[in-house]
Amino acid sequence: MTARTFVCRCEDVTLTEIERAIAAGLIDVEEIKRYTGLGTGPCQGKECLSALGRLLVARNLIAPAALRPFTARPPVEPVTFAALAAGATEHPEEPSP
Amino acid sequence: MTVAMGRADTPLPADVDVAVIGGGIMGLGLAYHLALLSGGKGKPPLSIAVIERSYLVSGASGRNGGGVRMQWGDAGNVRLMMDSIELCKDLAQQLGINLWFRQGGYLFLARTEAGERRLERNVQLHGEVGAPTRLLTAAEAQAIVPQLDVAEVRLATFNPEDGVVFPWAFVWGYAAKAVERGVVLRTHTSVVRVEPLAQGFALHLHTGEVVRARRVVNATGAWSGALNRQLGIDLPNRPHRHEILSSEPLKPFLDPLVVDLSSGLYFSQSTRGELVTGISLPDAPDGSDESLTLHSSLRFLTHLSATLTRLMPITAAMKVLRQWVGPYDVSPDGDAIVGPSPGHPDFIQVCGFTGHGFMMAPAVGRLLARWLALGEAHPMLARWSPGRFAAGGVARREDMIIG
Amino acid sequence: MSPRGAACYRRRVPKAPLLAPPGPPTISFRWDGAPVAACPGDTVASALIAAGELATSRSAKYRRLRGPACLHGGCGTCLVRVDGRPNQRACLTPVREDMCVEPQNTYGGLDPTALVDQVFRRGIDHHHLVVYPRIANQMMQGVARELAGFGELPDAPPEDVAAVVDHAPEVLVIGAGRSGRALAAALTAAGHPPLVVERRAATALGGSDLPARLLAGVGVFACYPQERLWAAASEQPPVLHRLRPRHVVLAVGAHEPTIPLANNDLPGVVSARGLADMLEQTGRKSSARVVVIGEGARAELLASTLAAERVPPARVRKLIGARRVKGVQLEDGKILRCDLVALAPDPAPAFELAAQAGAPIHFTGAGFAPVVDADGRIAAGPAAHPLEAEGAQTAPPPPWTLWAVGELAGATTPAEIRGTVDRCAAALVRALAESPDPKDSHARA
Ligand SMILES: Cc1cc2nc3c(=O)[nH]c(=O)nc-3n(C[C@H](O)[C@H](O)[C@H](O)COP(=O)(O)OP(=O)(O)OC[C@H]3O[C@@H](n4cnc5c(N)ncnc54)[C@H](O)[C@@H]3O)c2cc1C
Ligand code: FES
Q1: N or C terminus: fewer CB in 10 A for chain A?
Q2: Residue numbers in C near B303 (CB within 8 A)
Q3: What pLDDT tens digit does each residue of chain B (403 aa) get?
């Protein structure tokens, strides 16, 4: 039944696909994210990342203390190019010290 | 079908013929081609190991825009990329993995007179070399991408053979096939010290292990300087952070990758439907190894958004989903740094590919492997020689570097 | 005809309503070409669920019907087209008279799920799907490209002029949920009214305890420690907010992760917490049969709020239904018929902004969270990226102090949430007294 058990609905990643990645030797969340696509859709991992973490811990693939999330890339929620464009200066300012 | 993407616990032999440091597209593309040639023509098989500090696709090879083009400003690069694109056409079948190579073309836009002249020169040159690039008016460019605001566009070029790929799968594909042919791939392991021996080198790993290699390839891209300095090799390539983003995925609306020459803005649509786009920040400082930071910035987002929404107004109502950063490995004359290092001929560089190493990797891997395994020369190797900087006065040939 | 066009003219069979309105509906909008009645407090998602319309799109790969699930802005499967703008979150979009809401990626009601299930019984391995021969590979890629992507290009660029606003509040509170509001009230009482930023629209917030300085409908989307600011934006009108606070309190709560069960993606499988909150905000009453899946006191509480039967995940074999969930099949074969399945997992703290701000992050057993002290203070510095060169220049420490309250600070029950708020408010007031703002924060904001 794992072929239609979804861990990440945005990118249609099923338990079967996670298991395939694990079988291929991947246990790092960054690697599993890239190989399966998990966490790269509209929710950016809000629904699936912790589910993946629990799964890896439950299967003893990683110690809870060693588990880290994948990078929480900005933006944490989608933002329009229109709003962002408003913040541009003609010559982008130097990053503050 | 199982995949072999390297493991942190792969046993490493104590001695190898070739050790490749860095499991990006350069390191793995080379290892794959070396393994194909190994043992051929009555030669004994080569033992090859690839050592990667992190997971595969953690470096620039996992952070790039996936653009592949033959539209360059210099004949050597055009020919090289014609080879690379030819290789890409059936590479998915050779590597047994989907690469999502889509030839939607590259559309270059010129908004200045200088840009116009560059594009005219390119088309002439490409014609001589045999690349099917054509000049377009602003209206013709708009026929290819109807959403463009071409009011400021003076001239455009289009090459239908150019395209985009899904970069990660190249790396996994090369890795799996290299491993299938006997290459040892160790991930999550860094080379912390390179010790020259009478014959070859000893590589000291962070795990305490030592691997001796007759020849070593430095394929660590933006991180290559640290290893080079240990051997007193002084090369001028420097890391430089380059930002990029992808939008929410939409149904297909954009076929080519579009480049605006004036601003350095580029954007394409991935197979998944995301707009993948980057831009050069005019005043981004050149880094040294020590300043290679990989933080994202709002400054990039706002500057890119302003430029993009001006050129392609409909994007104003689209949304950014994710931004990230990767390192360019910038070579001062725009040419890569490939071949034996000054003073250490058995320490071989394959670095300095700035923002275009991914697309060149299929051709580079093959030509470098032929040189390493068979001693076969290639015109680009002379040009890319790491020794050229010591001789001084290197001319910049290429002016079509983006980002 | 375009897939969208086709959908607009489809005749649709009205579904049985699932949630009763608090009063007579006064708003009517179009869903997939047909009118739907709604009440002023509704979001598009609450109105659609109330009307029994559970599916809003098809998934990219398996072509499965999908609909609103978390009801909380966090999952991304309620994306609909609203008045020509793609990918609007139905659960965050307030209803407006006459708005035109359309499903996405559905191709006019074609139902390929059964076919996909038949052909790809064991799932789809997109890396190794139809690699050979080259010609078939190219065809497959063309088809995949057409099927991918949520929504089509917007009809037009936004009409409103975009703007940028700078703020330099003494205290910035991110989130106007229970903990954010309580904290804002405590700080205001102590003479330090904070600026509160909340991504939900003001109309969707309800309650009488709204903070005085509230930016509603504005989502904080990132912390950029190197640029020493926090960034937030609204979509309509498009406004970018740059925030340079002295103290930041993260009151961002938690996500409701999925529970891996067979068919857990069916339309009608929602978050129990999201559903309970939605009923509270809209004043609607559930007339649906609901089964809650979850374990522990929190799940128990949610089940009683929703007047639902509760089963632990371990007892569930699969969820059943084709175009929407119809029931829960238990391991012993028994089937619990229902209209909605409400998942009640242990919530996963919304750690993302804290991580961007450089907070150390740990795994709590349920999800990831920043490390906080007893007062909710987070010791955050700009963390070096793991791939950065050793000795990479790290930026100076950020100019703000970072705090967390509520679920992000590890609280789960209302009493615990209240505790984190009280301790954080007391510590913050002390900190503010020790180093008063050199400038008048109101004038700067
Ligand atoms: C944002 C961005 C966009 C780009 N867009 C394009 C594009 O559209 N088209 C294109 O062709 N190119 C593009 N590029 C450039 C392209 O990505 C690079 O040129 C190419 O990936 C370089 O490959 P590499 O294998 O040399 O480097 P990398 O992929 O960086 O590989 C180097 C590897 O070495 C490892 N390493 C480092 N030090 C050690 C050590 N001591 N021990 C062991 N391992 C070590 C690293 O972990 C890394 O994996 C882009 C680059 C960036 C950053
Ligand atoms: S994001 Fe709207 S239901 Fe989850």
Answers
A1: C
A2: none
A3: 344 788 889 999 999 999 999 999 999 999 999 999 998 777 789 999 999 999 999 999 999 999 999 999 999 999 999 999 999 999 999 999 999 999 999 999 999 999 999 999 999 999 999 999 999 999 999 999 999 999 999 999 999 999 999 999 999 999 999 999 999 999 999 999 999 999 999 999 999 999 999 999 999 999 999 999 999 999 999 998 899 999 999 999 999 999 999 999 999 999 999 999 999 886 555 555 545 678 899 999 999 999 999 999 999 999 999 999 999 999 999 999 999 999 999 999 999 999 999 999 999 999 999 999 999 999 999 999 999 998 776 788 899 988 6
Q: Which fold has domain C258-344?
A: FAD/NAD(P)-binding domain (3.50.50)
Q: At the top level of CATH, which class does the domain C163-254+348-384+395-444 belong to?
A: alpha beta
Of the residues B329, B344, B376, the one at which a domain ends:
B329
Kindly state whether C224 is in contact with chain B, defined as any CB-CB distance less than 8 angstroms: yes
B257 alpha carbon, closest ligand: 1
User: Residue C271 is which amino acid?
Assistant: S
A88 to B303: CB separation less than 8 angstroms, yes or no:
yes
Q: Do residues B338 and B224 share a domain?
A: yes
Decide if A84 and B320 are in contact by the 8 Å CB cutoff. Answer: yes
Does the C-beta of C73 come closer than 6 Å to ligand 2? yes
Q: Which CATH architecture has domain A6-70?
A: Orthogonal Bundle (1.10)
Tokens of C46: 């609450």
Please name the residues in contact with C98: beta carbons below 8 A apart, sequence gap of 6 or more: C28, C29, C30
Among the listed residues B181, B220, B238, the one whose alpha carbon sits nearest the alpha carbon of residue B348:
B220
Q: Which of B329, B352, B377 lies at the terminal end of a domain, its last residue?
A: B329
Tokens of C58: 């098809």
Whether C74 lines ligand 2, by a CB cut-off of 6 Å, is yes
Interface check for C234 against chain A (CB to CB < 8 A): the answer is: yes
Q: What is the ipTM of this complex?
A: 0.94
Closest CA to B31 of B43, B46, B12, B44: B46
Residue B39 lies in a domain: yes
Q: Please, what's the b/e burial string for B135-170 (b: 16 or more CB within 10 A of its CB; e: otherwise)?
A: ebebeebbebbeebebeebebbbbbebbbbbbbbbb
Q: Which of C56, C153, C329, C368 to mutate to test the interface with A (most CBs of A within 10 A)?
A: C368
| CB distance B238 to ligand 1 below 6 Å | no
Q: CB distance from C147 to chain B under 8 Å?
A: no
Q: What residues make up the domain containing B179?
A: 15-62+168-237+333-389
Q: Token digits for C412? A: 């789960």
Question: How long is chain C?
Answer: 445
Radius of gyration from C-alpha coordinates of chain A: 17
